[in-house]
Protein backbone atom coordinates (compact mmCIF):
# COMPACT_ATOMS: atom_id res chain seq x y z
CA UNK A 1 0.00 0.00 0.00
CA UNK A 2 1.15 3.53 -0.80
CA UNK A 3 -0.47 6.83 0.19
CA UNK A 4 -0.16 10.41 -1.01
CA UNK A 5 -1.73 13.57 0.35
CA UNK A 6 -2.09 16.54 -1.97
CA UNK A 7 -3.66 19.95 -1.40
CA UNK A 8 -4.64 21.63 -4.68
CA UNK A 9 -3.68 25.26 -5.17
CA UNK A 10 -7.19 25.89 -6.56
CA UNK A 11 -10.55 24.20 -5.94
CA UNK A 12 -10.73 20.81 -7.64
CA UNK A 13 -13.89 18.74 -7.93
CA UNK A 14 -12.52 15.20 -7.92
CA UNK A 15 -15.90 13.72 -8.78
CA UNK A 16 -16.25 15.83 -11.94
CA UNK A 17 -12.69 15.05 -13.00
CA UNK A 18 -13.10 11.30 -12.51
CA UNK A 19 -16.69 10.65 -13.60
CA UNK A 20 -15.74 10.88 -17.29
CA UNK A 21 -13.62 7.75 -16.74
CA UNK A 22 -16.61 5.71 -15.59
CA UNK A 23 -18.27 3.53 -18.23
CA UNK A 24 -21.69 3.14 -16.70
CA UNK A 25 -22.87 2.38 -13.18
CA UNK A 26 -21.64 -1.21 -13.43
CA UNK A 27 -18.12 -0.41 -14.64
CA UNK A 28 -15.76 -2.98 -13.04
CA UNK A 29 -12.93 -0.42 -13.16
CA UNK A 30 -14.75 2.41 -11.32
CA UNK A 31 -16.70 2.54 -8.08
CA UNK A 32 -17.94 5.14 -5.62
CA UNK A 33 -18.43 3.79 -2.10
CA UNK A 34 -20.86 5.10 0.55
CA UNK A 35 -18.06 6.99 2.31
CA UNK A 36 -17.69 9.19 -0.77
CA UNK A 37 -14.39 7.68 -1.91
CA UNK A 38 -13.84 6.93 -5.59
CA UNK A 39 -12.05 3.72 -6.52
CA UNK A 40 -10.62 3.02 -9.95
CA UNK A 41 -8.29 0.47 -11.45
CA UNK A 42 -5.70 0.92 -14.19
CA UNK A 43 -2.96 -0.95 -15.96
CA UNK A 44 0.00 1.40 -15.64
CA UNK A 45 3.44 1.02 -17.29
CA UNK A 46 4.53 -0.51 -13.96
CA UNK A 47 1.60 -2.93 -13.70
CA UNK A 48 -1.94 -3.11 -12.28
CA UNK A 49 -3.12 -0.68 -9.62
CA UNK A 50 -6.17 0.01 -7.52
CA UNK A 51 -6.44 3.69 -6.60
CA UNK A 52 -8.74 5.04 -3.89
CA UNK A 53 -9.30 8.81 -3.89
CA UNK A 54 -10.92 10.73 -1.07
CA UNK A 55 -11.30 14.48 -0.66
CA UNK A 56 -11.56 15.56 2.97
CA UNK A 57 -13.78 18.54 2.11
CA UNK A 58 -14.67 20.60 -0.99
CA UNK A 59 -11.45 22.30 -1.99
CA UNK A 60 -9.61 20.43 0.76
CA UNK A 61 -6.81 17.89 0.91
CA UNK A 62 -6.91 14.95 -1.49
CA UNK A 63 -5.86 11.58 -0.08
CA UNK A 64 -4.82 8.94 -2.59
CA UNK A 65 -4.21 5.35 -1.52
CA UNK A 66 -2.94 2.77 -3.99
CA UNK A 67 -2.27 -0.96 -4.08
CA UNK A 68 -0.43 -3.07 -6.62
CA UNK A 69 2.75 -2.82 -8.73
CA UNK A 70 1.52 0.41 -10.33
CA UNK A 71 0.88 2.20 -7.03
CA UNK A 72 3.84 4.57 -7.19
CA UNK A 73 3.12 5.49 -10.82
CA UNK A 74 -0.54 6.16 -10.08
CA UNK A 75 0.17 8.35 -7.06
CA UNK A 76 2.80 10.33 -8.96
CA UNK A 77 0.09 11.12 -11.50
CA UNK A 78 -2.67 11.86 -8.98
CA UNK A 79 -2.62 15.68 -9.36
CA UNK A 80 -2.68 15.42 -13.17
CA UNK A 81 -5.53 12.88 -12.96
CA UNK A 82 -7.59 15.45 -11.06
CA UNK A 83 -6.74 18.31 -13.41
CA UNK A 84 -3.79 20.05 -11.76
CA UNK A 85 -2.18 20.52 -15.18
CA UNK A 86 -5.34 21.94 -16.73
CA UNK A 87 -4.77 25.61 -17.56
CA UNK A 88 -8.16 27.30 -17.69
CA UNK A 89 -6.85 30.86 -17.27
CA UNK A 90 -7.50 31.88 -20.88
CA UNK A 91 -11.01 30.49 -20.72
CA UNK A 92 -12.01 32.98 -18.03
CA UNK A 93 -11.32 35.86 -20.42
CA UNK A 94 -13.35 34.10 -23.12
CA UNK A 95 -16.30 33.79 -20.74
CA UNK A 96 -16.30 37.54 -20.14
CA UNK A 97 -17.40 38.12 -23.73
CA UNK A 98 -19.04 34.73 -24.33
CA UNK A 99 -22.41 33.18 -23.66
CA UNK A 100 -24.09 34.05 -20.37
CA UNK A 101 -25.29 30.47 -19.89
CA UNK A 102 -21.67 29.27 -19.82
CA UNK A 103 -20.78 31.88 -17.20
CA UNK A 104 -23.65 30.66 -15.03
CA UNK A 105 -22.67 26.99 -15.30
CA UNK A 106 -18.97 27.79 -14.73
CA UNK A 107 -19.88 29.64 -11.53
CA UNK A 108 -21.93 26.64 -10.43
CA UNK A 109 -18.99 24.25 -10.99
CA UNK A 110 -15.84 26.21 -10.06
CA UNK A 111 -13.92 23.00 -9.43
CA UNK A 112 -14.33 21.63 -12.96
CA UNK A 113 -10.93 20.55 -14.30
CA UNK A 114 -9.96 18.39 -17.27
CA UNK A 115 -7.80 15.60 -15.89
CA UNK A 116 -5.38 13.32 -17.72
CA UNK A 117 -4.68 9.63 -17.14
CA UNK A 118 -1.61 9.35 -19.37
CA UNK A 119 -2.95 5.98 -20.61
CA UNK A 120 -4.02 5.91 -24.26
CA UNK A 121 -5.02 2.28 -24.73
CA UNK A 122 -7.09 2.32 -21.54
CA UNK A 123 -9.19 5.13 -23.00
CA UNK A 124 -9.26 3.66 -26.50
CA UNK A 125 -10.92 0.29 -25.91
CA UNK A 126 -14.17 1.57 -24.33
CA UNK A 127 -14.30 4.44 -26.84
CA UNK A 128 -14.22 1.97 -29.73
CA UNK A 129 -16.92 -0.12 -28.06
CA UNK A 130 -19.09 3.02 -27.95
CA UNK A 131 -18.88 3.56 -31.71
CA UNK A 132 -22.27 3.59 -33.49
CA UNK A 133 -24.25 1.87 -30.74
CA UNK A 134 -26.44 3.10 -27.93
CA UNK A 135 -24.59 3.72 -24.70
CA UNK A 136 -26.13 0.89 -22.68
CA UNK A 137 -25.00 -1.66 -25.28
CA UNK A 138 -21.40 -0.43 -25.27
CA UNK A 139 -21.31 -0.44 -21.50
CA UNK A 140 -22.66 -3.96 -21.34
CA UNK A 141 -19.93 -5.03 -23.79
CA UNK A 142 -17.23 -3.33 -21.71
CA UNK A 143 -18.51 -4.90 -18.48
CA UNK A 144 -18.71 -8.38 -20.03
CA UNK A 145 -15.17 -8.25 -21.45
CA UNK A 146 -13.72 -6.84 -18.24
CA UNK A 147 -15.33 -9.50 -16.08
CA UNK A 148 -14.29 -12.22 -18.51
CA UNK A 149 -10.69 -11.13 -19.19
CA UNK A 150 -9.76 -8.56 -16.58
CA UNK A 151 -7.63 -9.35 -13.55
CA UNK A 152 -8.92 -9.06 -9.97
CA UNK A 153 -8.13 -5.62 -8.58
CA UNK A 154 -5.15 -5.48 -6.17
CA UNK A 155 -5.72 -4.61 -2.54
CA UNK A 156 -9.01 -4.28 -0.64
CA UNK A 157 -11.01 -3.09 -3.66
CA UNK A 158 -14.81 -3.34 -3.63
CA UNK A 159 -16.15 -6.70 -4.79
CA UNK A 160 -16.25 -7.24 -8.52
CA UNK A 161 -13.60 -4.70 -9.51
CA UNK A 162 -11.23 -5.73 -12.30
CA UNK A 163 -8.09 -4.38 -13.95
CA UNK A 164 -8.18 -3.95 -17.71
CA UNK A 165 -6.27 -6.77 -19.45
CA UNK A 166 -3.03 -5.93 -21.28
CA UNK A 167 -2.96 -5.41 -25.07
CA UNK A 168 -1.73 -8.94 -25.78
CA UNK A 169 -4.85 -10.37 -24.14
CA UNK A 170 -7.15 -8.17 -26.23
CA UNK A 171 -5.40 -9.50 -29.34
CA UNK A 172 -6.17 -13.10 -28.35
CA UNK A 173 -9.88 -12.76 -27.55
CA UNK A 174 -11.66 -15.26 -29.82
CA UNK A 175 -14.39 -14.19 -32.20
CA UNK A 176 -17.09 -16.02 -30.25
CA UNK A 177 -16.35 -14.00 -27.11
CA UNK A 178 -16.51 -10.72 -29.01
CA UNK A 179 -19.89 -11.99 -30.21
CA UNK A 180 -21.00 -12.85 -26.67
CA UNK A 181 -19.95 -9.38 -25.57
CA UNK A 182 -22.12 -7.86 -28.28
CA UNK A 183 -19.21 -6.34 -30.24
CA UNK A 184 -19.42 -7.03 -33.97
CA UNK A 185 -16.39 -7.82 -36.13
CA UNK A 186 -15.64 -4.21 -37.14
CA UNK A 187 -15.17 -2.91 -33.59
CA UNK A 188 -13.37 -6.09 -32.57
CA UNK A 189 -10.88 -5.71 -35.43
CA UNK A 190 -10.31 -2.06 -34.54
CA UNK A 191 -9.42 -2.96 -30.95
CA UNK A 192 -7.18 -5.84 -32.06
CA UNK A 193 -5.34 -3.57 -34.53
CA UNK A 194 -4.90 -0.91 -31.86
CA UNK A 195 -3.64 -3.50 -29.36
CA UNK A 196 -0.94 -4.52 -31.85
CA UNK A 197 0.24 -0.89 -31.89
CA UNK A 198 -0.33 -0.09 -28.23
CA UNK A 199 3.33 0.61 -27.51
CA UNK A 200 3.46 3.28 -30.25
CA UNK A 201 0.23 4.84 -29.02
CA UNK A 202 1.48 5.02 -25.43
CA UNK A 203 4.72 6.62 -26.63
CA UNK A 204 2.87 9.68 -27.98
CA UNK A 205 4.02 12.76 -26.09
CA UNK A 206 1.34 15.23 -27.19
CA UNK A 207 -2.34 15.14 -27.98
CA UNK A 208 -1.60 16.16 -31.59
CA UNK A 209 0.84 13.27 -32.01
CA UNK A 210 -1.67 10.85 -30.50
CA UNK A 211 -4.36 12.16 -32.86
CA UNK A 212 -2.14 11.45 -35.87
CA UNK A 213 -1.32 7.93 -34.66
CA UNK A 214 -4.88 7.09 -33.69
CA UNK A 215 -6.41 8.25 -36.94
CA UNK A 216 -3.88 6.25 -38.95
CA UNK A 217 -5.53 3.09 -37.59
CA UNK A 218 -8.48 1.55 -39.44
CA UNK A 219 -11.78 2.20 -37.68
CA UNK A 220 -10.63 5.23 -35.69
CA UNK A 221 -11.86 8.64 -36.77
CA UNK A 222 -12.34 12.12 -35.38
CA UNK A 223 -14.85 11.19 -32.67
CA UNK A 224 -12.90 8.25 -31.23
CA UNK A 225 -9.62 10.16 -31.26
CA UNK A 226 -11.19 13.08 -29.41
CA UNK A 227 -12.76 10.83 -26.78
CA UNK A 228 -9.38 9.20 -26.15
CA UNK A 229 -7.38 12.44 -26.01
CA UNK A 230 -9.83 14.10 -23.66
CA UNK A 231 -9.11 11.40 -21.08
CA UNK A 232 -5.52 10.35 -21.77
CA UNK A 233 -4.10 13.84 -22.40
CA UNK A 234 -6.62 16.10 -20.68
CA UNK A 235 -7.08 17.90 -24.01
CA UNK A 236 -9.52 20.71 -23.26
CA UNK A 237 -9.95 21.44 -26.98
CA UNK A 238 -10.66 17.93 -28.32
CA UNK A 239 -14.21 18.17 -29.68
CA UNK A 240 -16.25 14.97 -30.06
CA UNK A 241 -17.38 15.73 -33.61
CA UNK A 242 -19.83 13.06 -34.73
CA UNK A 243 -21.40 12.52 -31.30
CA UNK A 244 -25.04 11.48 -31.63
CA UNK A 245 -26.31 14.16 -29.22
CA UNK A 246 -23.60 16.75 -28.60
CA UNK A 247 -24.09 19.08 -31.57
CA UNK A 248 -27.83 19.48 -31.02
CA UNK A 249 -27.29 20.05 -27.28
CA UNK A 250 -24.59 22.68 -27.87
CA UNK A 251 -26.85 24.48 -30.30
CA UNK A 252 -29.83 24.31 -27.96
CA UNK A 253 -27.95 25.55 -24.88
CA UNK A 254 -26.08 28.36 -26.63
CA UNK A 255 -28.74 29.57 -29.10
CA UNK A 256 -32.04 27.87 -28.30
CA UNK A 257 -31.90 26.02 -31.64
CA UNK A 258 -30.59 22.58 -32.52
CA UNK A 259 -27.66 22.42 -34.92
CA UNK A 260 -25.37 19.95 -36.68
CA UNK A 261 -21.63 19.33 -36.35
CA UNK A 262 -20.71 22.21 -38.67
CA UNK A 263 -22.96 24.57 -36.72
CA UNK A 264 -21.51 23.34 -33.44
CA UNK A 265 -17.96 24.05 -34.62
CA UNK A 266 -18.97 27.58 -35.63
CA UNK A 267 -20.49 28.19 -32.19
CA UNK A 268 -17.40 26.80 -30.46
CA UNK A 269 -14.89 28.67 -32.63
CA UNK A 270 -14.57 31.67 -30.24
CA UNK A 271 -13.58 29.21 -27.50
CA UNK A 272 -10.76 27.54 -29.45
CA UNK A 273 -8.37 25.90 -27.04
CA UNK A 274 -11.25 25.13 -24.67
CA UNK A 275 -13.96 23.65 -26.91
CA UNK A 276 -14.15 20.38 -25.00
CA UNK A 277 -14.41 22.38 -21.77
CA UNK A 278 -17.38 24.22 -23.24
CA UNK A 279 -18.95 20.91 -24.23
CA UNK A 280 -18.60 19.70 -20.64
CA UNK A 281 -20.26 22.87 -19.33
CA UNK A 282 -23.06 22.41 -21.88
CA UNK A 283 -23.68 18.88 -20.62
CA UNK A 284 -23.50 20.04 -16.99
CA UNK A 285 -26.15 22.68 -17.70
CA UNK A 286 -28.69 19.87 -17.88
CA UNK A 287 -30.56 21.58 -20.72
CA UNK A 288 -31.49 19.37 -23.66
CA UNK A 289 -33.51 19.97 -26.80
CA UNK A 290 -36.95 18.36 -26.92
CA UNK A 291 -36.84 14.86 -28.35
CA UNK A 292 -38.29 14.65 -31.83
CA UNK A 293 -38.02 11.89 -34.36
CA UNK A 294 -36.84 8.29 -33.88
CA UNK A 295 -34.20 7.47 -31.34
CA UNK A 296 -31.06 5.60 -32.32
CA UNK A 297 -32.13 1.95 -32.19
CA UNK A 298 -30.45 -0.51 -29.87
CA UNK A 299 -28.80 -3.33 -31.78
CA UNK A 300 -27.87 -6.43 -29.82
CA UNK A 301 -25.17 -8.00 -31.98
CA UNK A 302 -25.34 -11.21 -29.96
CA UNK A 303 -28.49 -12.10 -31.94
CA UNK A 304 -26.76 -11.89 -35.34
List the helices and strands and how they pair.
Layout: E1 2-6, H1 14-19, E2 30-32, E3 38-44, E4 47-55, E5 62-67, H2 71-76, H3 78-81, H4 89-96, H5 100-108, H6 120-129, H7 135-149, E6 151-152, E7 162-163, H8 167-172, H9 175-181, H10 185-196, H11 198-202, H12 207-215, H13 222-232, H14 246-255, H15 261-268, H16 275-285
Antiparallel strand pairs: 1-5, 2-3, 3-4, 4-5, 6-7
Helix pairs in contact: 5-16, 6-10, 6-13, 7-9, 12-13, 14-15, 14-16
Report the uncertain regions.
Answer: none
Supply the number of structural domains: 3
Structural class: alpha+beta
Helix content: 40-55%
Label the CATH architecture of the largest domain. Orthogonal Bundle
Shape: globular
Number of helices: 16
What oligomeric assembly is this protein in?
single chain
Keywords: DNA damage, DNA repair
Organism: Thermostaphylospora chromogena
GO molecular function, one term: DNA-3-methyladenine glycosylase activity
Protein name: 3-methyladenine DNA glycosylase/8-oxoguanine DNA glycosylase
Amino acid sequence: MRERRWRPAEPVDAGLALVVLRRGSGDPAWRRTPDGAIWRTSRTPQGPVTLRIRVDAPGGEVVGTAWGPGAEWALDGLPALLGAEDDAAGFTAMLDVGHEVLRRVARRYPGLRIGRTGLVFEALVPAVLEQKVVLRESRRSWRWLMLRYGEPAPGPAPDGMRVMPPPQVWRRIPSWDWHRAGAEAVRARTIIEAAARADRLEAARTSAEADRLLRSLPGIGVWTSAEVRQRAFGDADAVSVGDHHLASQVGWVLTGEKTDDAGMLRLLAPYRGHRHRVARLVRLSGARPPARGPRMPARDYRSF
